[in-house]
Amino acid sequence: MFRILKQSLTPGVVTEPVSDPTDAELERIGIELRRRIDARFGRSLAIRQVDAGSCNGCELEIHALNNPYHDVERFGVHFVASPRHADALLVTGPVSRHMETALRRTWRATPSPKFVIAAGECACTGGEFGVSYASCGAVENVVPVDVKIPGCPPTPVDLLQGLLAALREGSA
What we know:
Elements: H1 2-9, H2 22-40, E1 45-51, H3 57-65, E2 77-79, E3 88-92, E4 95-96, H4 97-109, E5 115-119, H5 121-125, E6 135-137, E7 147-149, H6 156-171
């Protein structure tokens, strides 16, 4: 038993250090994002994420923003459970007919000034679903959209760039 325990403790760390070329870009975007959030809000940016009918690909990338690797909270961005506490809505997916009313209510419940970000190809254009009996298509067909982040799905760095673009739009 002790032999097995000793054997498991002796190798030490066997993984390689992470080296990703997007690290520097992530830091650069994050610092600029933090600066703009401080200038506009004087506090953190609160985001309410709404899945309006997506395949969950975009949600996986949004969740990656909160993991220890990207750690978006260090830049002053956090996600909230209520639209009443949000500064922005981050909407994914083509808006299904079943989510149309819920998205409108969420948009109305978000206090002004607010901005809406359509994340992913489906949210931006309706994707392959378009407008049909089951889908309203793009988010802008239901609520006004300030910034679109294309991609299927957009990467976490793309999402941060979209947040930065939304803050630039708001300050202009």
